[in-house]
Amino acid sequence: MDRQEWLKWRKGGIGSSDAPIIMGASPYKTRLQLYKEKISPEIKEETSFIQQMGNDIEPRLRSYMEFKHDRTYAPKLVVMAEYPHLRASLDGCSEDGQAIIE
């Protein structure tokens, strides 16, 4: 899945990054801004320098964890069966689903 497809998938529900905004605890975005973002047909990404650093280092950290724990972790998108609007984009999940890295 490329970045644009991932951004589109992310718009289709509520993830952990959205939770503090919904709870009114985020200094970065209001509930109204999040709502407008979710309903807009436009798919855009605004990342800060720190967010971009996190995105860039993610594959290296996953490799480190694979080496350290002698298991494979793949990025994984998960959706709650009972509430499909609740979703998570995991940095890594073991093949057996028993270990997650985030």
The number of E-state strands comes to 3
Profile the largest sheet. 3 strands, antiparallel
Whole-angstrom Rg: 15 Å
> Residue-averaged pLDDT, rounded?
94
Tell me what portion of residues adopts beta-strand conformation: 15-25%
Give the strand order, joined by hyphens, for the main sheet: 1-2-3
**Cα shape:** globular
Task: Give me the strand/helix succession.
Answer: HHHHEEE
Low-confidence segments? none
Structural class: alpha+beta
Helix proportion range: 40-55%
Distance, first to last CA: 19 Å
Task: Count every helix, treating DSSP H or I runs of 4 or more residues as helices.
Answer: 4
Characterise this structure.
- The protein is of the alpha+beta class and 102 residues long.
- Helices cover 42% and strands 17% of the residues.
- The relative contact order is 0.16.
- The model has no long low-confidence stretch (mean pLDDT 94).
Secondary structure layout:
Layout: H1 3-11, H2 19-22, H3 31-39, H4 49-69, E1 73-79, E2 87-94, E3 100-101
Antiparallel strand pairs: 1-2, 2-3
